[in-house]
Amino acid sequence: MGIELPSLNFGALLPVIIVILTSVMVLIFDLALSDKRPLGWISFVGLMFAGGAGWIQQSMEGFDPAFQNMAITDGYTHFFNLIFVVGAGLSVLVALGYLGKKGLQGGEYYAMLLLATSGMMIMAAGTDLMIIFLGLELMSISLYVLAAINRYSRASLEAGIKYFLLGAFASAFFLYGIALIYGASGSTNLNGIGEGLKAVPKGYEALPLFGLGLLIIGFSFKIAAVPFHWWTPDVYHGAPTSVTAFMSVGAKAAGFAALIRVLTVSFGFDGSMFADNWHVAVATLAVLTMTLGNLTALAQNDVKRMLAYSSIAHAGYVLVGVVTGTEQGISAALFYLMAYAFMNIGAFAVISVLEQQDAIGTNLEEYAGLAGHHRVLAMLMAIFMLSLMGFPMLGGFWGKVYVFLAAIEAGWIVLAIIAVLNSGIAAYYYLRVIVHMYMSPVSDQSHAINLNSAMQVALGLAAFGTILLGVMPARIMDLAASSGLFG
Amino acid sequence: MEHIPTTWYLLLAAILFSIGAGGVLIRRNTLVIFMCVEMMMNAANLTFVAFAREFGSTTGQVFVFMVMTVAAVEVAIGLAILVELYRHVKSVNIDSFDSLKG
Amino acid sequence: MVEYVWLTIAFPLIGVLINLFFGRLLEDAFSKWFKRSEVTGFIGSVTVVLSFLVSFAIFLQALGIEHFSHQVKLWDWITIGDFHVAISFLVDPLSIIMLLVVTGVGSLIHIYAVGYMDHDEGSARFFTYLNLFVASMLVLVLSDNYAGLYVGWELVGVCSYLLIGFWFFKPSAADAGKKAFIVNRIGDFGFALGIFLIWSTFGTLDYMEVFHEVGASHGEFASVINWVTILLFVGAIGKSAQIPLYVWLPDAMEGPTPVSALIHAATMVTAGVYMIARNNVLFAMAPNVSLVIAFVGAITAFFAATMALVAFDLKRVLAYSTISQLGYMILAVGVGAYAAGIFHLFTHAFFKALLFMAAGSVMHAMKGVIDMRRLGGLKDKMPETYWTFLIGAAALSGFPLITAGFWSKDNILVKAFELQQPNQAFGIILYTIGIITALLTAFYTFRAVFMTFHGEPRDKNLYDHAHENRRVMTLPLWILAIFSIGAGFLGLPSKLGLPNWIEDGWLYSVMAESHEILEHAHHFAHIGFGLEIALLSISAVVALVGIFGAWHVYIRYPQIAVDTARYAGRFYQLVLDKYRVDELYDTWIIEPGKGLADILAKIVDMNFIDKTLVDGSANSVRGLGHIMAILQTGYIRNYVMVIFVGIVVMGVYFFLL
Q1: What is d(CA C209, CA C192) in angstroms, rounded to the nearest whole number?
Q2: What is the mean pLDDT of residues B7-16?
Q3: Residue C503: pLDDT band with limits 50, 70, 90
Q4: How distant is the Cα of B27 from the closest Cα of chain C, in angstroms?
Q5: Choice between B77 and A203, residue whose per-residue pLDDT is larger
Q6: Among A363, A436, C291, C499, fewest CB within 10 Å belongs to which?
Q7: Could you tell me the maximum CA-CA distance found in chain C, to the nearest angstrom?
């Protein structure tokens, strides 16, 4: 009689494993290479491989649980992996074009970026709160480092410490929430929690409800939902722009990935008071997030900071999709995140091109007359701004349309109206950038613009993705709808 | 031999967690805030262990090991960032990190 | 081959991308060896020629296959619940013939433009727009649903606006661009409503599904179809420059001449005709609306011809003749002769593009002068331009038997004559207007020929400067000249026992359903051999009389023209002023509109909306933003505190519910 070895099914986590191995490889090569740029390309290739592995997994039908039901690779995981690969891949390219200018080119940057990506992937794949927590921490800790990676800049370090302190604080609540839910349901497995909570007698729901509240808060922190968003503007502003681009897309998507899975799998069952409660709570968060994000963005004169607030607002739109809890709403949220990945990284890439030293080159005034100065760059920025605004035939437009329609169909009419009003307000500050670029005279402070090949590829891909999602949204929507969360 | 009921452990954990949270809220020294966060995490750990003991399952106990590792990593990173920041600001007072706002 | 139809759109789009991003760069790189327009023009031309080759291959494949109709679906574009719109193309004889016209004539015009634009710095921009236009037009004609049709419809409008205002530094060009855009918007509004009505009635935007539902119905959609056809026709009025929205087309001549040739003669303006022919099933089921359409077409044809009689700007003469010829096409589709309308569209594309390009050739040689009062006697200086222009003019006038215009125009007139429903008299009236217009057409066309190429040069300076243009410009002229003659033999009158390949063969399957509906309603009388010969003879005589008249007035006794102008006095002046329609619109629509807008602006807007609502709300919203921004203090302990409050609120909410 021997010991039966559990089947772990490493294959199911192939993309994660590839990403982690790539980061190890980057660290090893870092010792040998004096020119650090090849490390970026290695990372890029590694991410492409991870994407390819995901593609192959997807073509092999069937959803594989792995590591004793700790993780699963279903359509949902695939879709998020795609977002992460897109986000991380584009960010690596942006970093290749940006770090040199700042004197930050180094192996640890790419290694951390890859580790953060693997954390995100683990969050999306995790079906156990323990795994989700580990993924979240792997992602967060790597991002703390990335935010503070420019140790010659006070702003970067301050961003790092703010992110770290508030992040750790939120993590503690998140952890305590897990503990309470574990206590109430006797399990940390998402399905197990669902089963366990069904058995909770009437009148004893307070404990798991409080736990659920803490979980939502933990995720809200990662996705930058109001009122847990306070770190966002400061960190996005202070961190190196290439990091901001990555954080704003990747961390947000990962937070949503875990949030949606937890809410629908563990707390989504009909007729429970849990479902009713989280819908209202998330709807409140959505309204606060959209409104505060957009309003504060109006008051910004720094484009980088403005985009930080805009990224808060976008989290609000995605939350509108999450609120519905319907298949249509969740698919819409997924689609939105994909579109957001392209357009937001694109926008930050443009900012990183124009940025000179700390906080110089990111002010709106310095965008004046960009169209006359550098036509292509201005046009790309206009595309990203229009898409973020929700201009027809671009990716962001369909994201909004799908989300709003899903909200209406699910009966959240008032929420949909608030969302539409909000996107109206938002148009003002996105258009302001375009107006400055196209209708103001060239500012005398304009600097020489240097676009290297990596940045060109990044910008091109981001624009291509933004337009592609606008031209053929139904494809991606089908992919998002086949996520398998709803069986 | 008399058992201490699980509820007491949970209560203790809740109190520890609150003390930790309160410390984060009111203390000015960043290092002390780190400690308070650690305290909150350990309160959560205590809750895990208490429940695991109650259920007679190992899940909660394993979780605690994971959390301890994570907490250690977190503090290491946090301290590193703080040391670098100290070189610029010459202070560990949390209120001195206010250059980013608006 | 047919599944590669998307290549026809993809090639010009590739051209757009190359010229947009790398156009200037490439021009600079090759500036040592080539002129600017030759570099970007080469890219533009090659992409359209490739697109033409694909079209031609599809045409060859379709040739001889009965009921050739393929839907090529690329991908689902929009899916919202049960509502699907696909990016999908309908390849059938009708779209193939449009494909050939757009890419064929388009290629020649691109090649011609390489020569024409050789003095222009903005050639990269020019060819970008021109390629974009071709791609948009192909989207319009290839789409298998109304959504795609509308997208193409709007895109060609945008391209037209960009190209009319291409020389935006000239105020007249910028104004003309704006005018075209605004006037077209009026039509597009109706068009969009029509499409919306289709969607809300049938729940789909796919042509085939709509036609199928209509075909299977038993009159329950009658009133809806009336409204749909009216609204769609409003769109056609704008795009195809019919009364009362024709005013933008003459002004559109401010654009570079290749643009006039491609967009404002050969392709875009025919979109309305194509759209009606595509929806022939719907229009055949709305006979009353169709009758109105026929009259609008006939009156437009006549009205525009009278204005062409007196215009002195050669390009404007051609612009009015375009409106007039579009009137014929609209007349044709109005009386239910859809194939005849498309046939005239087909032949007209060749000879009108030819005329415009020849006129452009004159303009290019004369340093931009296009006023016929300063031209004259050019036939010896520019023989190739002269002969090709003459062929085009003959086709436009309907010179009997050998020109394409004769056969296609006659086809329309015979159909109008045959009209029986609701009353034979309508048919006779339409025919009479048509034949009178034909007389005017022949007259003004040859007036232009004689004034430009014959007689004594009126401006010696310019005359001495004139020279024949380069081969790159004249070769396309000759190719078009060949088609201006040859294309007519594709649609000879079947009543005479001659083959009418286009109507009875090629387009028959597309029009079969409407043909049946019209047969059933005894829409047309079937005239005999003798009457057909008689009508043909009338057409021939009319054309010859018109040409002779022009010769009589402008060559033999030039004094007559001057005397008539003086004798007709005020009426002449009225026509010369384009019946003062522009002024009429100005006084009755634009000025009151402006006045009203002024009043609204002054009283309502400035004081109430601006100050109170817009400024007020904008300021208060921005003020709110500033307050929010103040909350972002930068102090971590503030953040922690607010987060903690948030947690407590959430906790309380979950606890107390």
Answers
A1: 19
A2: 92
A3: confident
A4: 9
A5: B77
A6: C499
A7: 104
CATH number for the domain formed by residue range(s) B6-91: 1.10.287.3510
C-alpha span between A257 and A79 (Å, rounded): 10
Query: Which of B17, B18, B25, B93 is most worth mutating to test chain C (most C CB atoms within 10 A of its CB)?
Result: B25
Q: What is the pLDDT of residue C427?
A: 86
Tell if the CB–CB gap between C637 and B100 is shorter than 8 Å: no
In angstroms, the CA C237 to CA C327 distance is 10
pLDDT tens for residues A299-319? 888 899 999 999 999 999 999
Q: Say what the ipTM of the complex is.
A: 0.95
Question: CA of C628: which chain B residue's CA is closest?
Answer: B102
A180 near B CB under 8 A: yes
**A134, exposed or middle or buried, with CB in 10 Å at 0-12, 13-18, 19+?**
buried
- The average confidence (pLDDT) of chain C is 83
Determine the distance in angstroms separating the CA of A53 from the nearest CA of chain B, rounded to an integer.
Answer: 28
**Contact check, Cβ <8 Å, A474/C75:** yes
Which segments of B8-87 are extended strands (E)? none
CB-based contacts of C287, cutoff 8 Å, min separation 6: C421, C422, C521, C523
Contact C354, C346 (CB under 8 A): no
End-to-end CA gap in chain A: 39
Please answer yes or no on whether A164 and B78 come within 8 Å at the CB atom: yes
- Nearest C-alpha in A relative to C634: A234
Residues of B in contact with A158 (CB under 8 A): 85, 97, 99-100
Nearest CA in chain C to B27: C637
B99/C634 Cβ within 8 A: yes
Residue B28 contacts A where some CB pair is shorter than 8 Å: no
User: Residues 6 or more apart from A134 whose CB is under 8 A from it?
Assistant: A122, A126, B66, B70
Rounded to the nearest angstrom, the minimum Cα separation between B82 and chain A is: 7
Q: Which of A112, A158, A204 to mutate to test the interface with B (most CBs of B within 10 A)?
A: A158
The residue behind tokens 């009283």 is C603
Interval A97-124 mean pLDDT: 91
* Residue C629 binned pLDDT confidence (cut-offs 50, 70, 90): confident
The C-alpha atoms of residue A242 and residue A150 are separated, in whole angstroms, by 11
Strands A71-73 and C83-91: unpaired
Query: Six-digit token pair at A273?
Result: 């008071």
Q: Are strands C83-91 and C70-80 parallel, antiparallel or unpaired?
A: antiparallel
> pLDDT digits over A132-147, tens only?
999 999 999 999 999 9
DSSP type of residue C166: T
Work out the minimum CA distance from B92 to partner chain A, whole angstroms. 11
Most C CBs within 10 A among B27, B93, B99, B101, hence the mutation to make, goes to B101
H or E stretch at C505: none
What are the distances in angstroms from CA C474 to CA C356, C404, C445, C449? Answer: 12, 20, 21, 18
Q: Residue ranges of the domains in chain B? A: 6-91
- Angle A252-261/A206-223 helices, nearest 10 degrees? 160
Q: State the Cα–Cα distance between residues C123 and C15, nearest whole angstrom.
A: 13
Nearest CA in chain B to A157: B85
Q: Please name the amino acid found at residue A434.
A: I
Taking the Cβ of residue A447 and every Cβ of chain B, the question of whether any pair is shorter than 8 Å is answered with: no
Cis peptide bond N-terminal to C258, omega within 30:
no
Helix axes of A231-238 and A303-324: crossing angle, nearest 10 degrees: 140
**What does the H/E/C string look like for C515-560?**
HHHHHHCCCECCCCHHHHHHHHHHHHHHHHHHHHHHHHHHHHCCHH
Look up residue C404 and give its two tokens: 């394409």
What is the average pLDDT across C123-144? 89
Distance from CA of A420 to the nearest CA of B (A): 26
**Average pLDDT of span A457-469:** 93
Most A CBs within 10 Å, among C82, C633, C643, to test the A interface: C643
CB atoms within 10 A of CB C432: 15
